[in-house]
Amino acid sequence: MSDQGEQITYAAAGVDVEAGDKAVELMKADVRRATRPEVLGGLGGFAGMFDASAIARMERPVLATSTDGVGTKVAIAQALDKHDTIGFDLVGMVVDDIVVCGAEPLFMTDYIATGKVVPERIAAIVGGIARACEQAGVALVGGETAEHPGLLDPDEYDVAGAATGVVEHADVLGPQRVQPGDVVLGIASSGLHSNGYSLVRKVVAHAGWQLDRHVDEFGRTLGEELLEPTHVYSLDLLELIRTDGIDLHALSHVTGGGLAANLARVLPSQVFARVDRSTWTPPPVFSTVQRLGQVPQADIERTLNMGVGFVAMLPADQVDLAVRTLAGRGLTAWTMGEVTALESARVEDGIEVVQGAKGVDGGSVQVVGSHPA
Fold this sequence. Notes:
Its main location: cytoplasm. The protein is of the alpha+beta class. The protein is about 30% helix and about 25% strand. It is built from 12 helices and 15 strands. The chain has a 7-stranded mixed sheet with strand order 10-12-7-13-11-15-14, sandwiched between helices.
């Protein structure tokens, strides 16, 4: 029988409310910059509020929403004790899914679960989220930090987020716009982004490589390469959508499942997209992972983005303008394939054809050729 005189406090159970309050104070300056004129109220309310007057004036506004995390990339941040970039991965994974349908992301919330609230660490994580939101033109209107002692180790944490955007119904991008003759335009990734880290970490561990190992092909340490933040494409793609002379038909965010599967999701069922590997060279991290783990080509392409962060479909006569527009924002883009009618498609024997993905009865994609040596 327990001692009836013993007092058990929340702090004794492992939750430090004062540490949470300190974390909020440390992150305030960053969060204040991640705003928009439509935001009402300030940090600390029970709900984030956003003035929707502009939406109400739209002819047929369609709200778009997305939620995601960053997977096991957090393990790299924790191992390196560097937490100010993981927020870019979170914002990229969440916000850039919204742009796929042509919507402008408006606001975002975040959630952090940790074994122990270390104010400086939480502030670094949220600071990264806020800076990425500022870069994306998105307001960070709220968030939550939860301390889970006994469930997570003191230095462990996970992050998740959700965002909402809006688009006129008449401007929604997607399979309904894609036509035979469209060009498949690849847009470069900044590296691994935030998918496939379970494979990458397994390969690295199997090879016995440490995160502080300098890798000549990377020009930096392995840990620095693996922690490279996801590029946030939101404003880049919105500019592409709004550029006179460009009639963008569809976008695909190359995340879990790889290039072929994510491209197939945004194609109509009656078309075929042929993508040629010879049109680009993946950054060295991809070939290094494949070589170290002897990862089969099909498996690595289903897991990693292979240097392609986004794909756009548009008419052939608009490709040059699109490439110049993206170059003006520091992004490399190139023609990687074309769309044809399925019934007349040139399908190469013995090479996998991916049809639809993630429950979508979409189009067919075949990736052919080899990357330049």
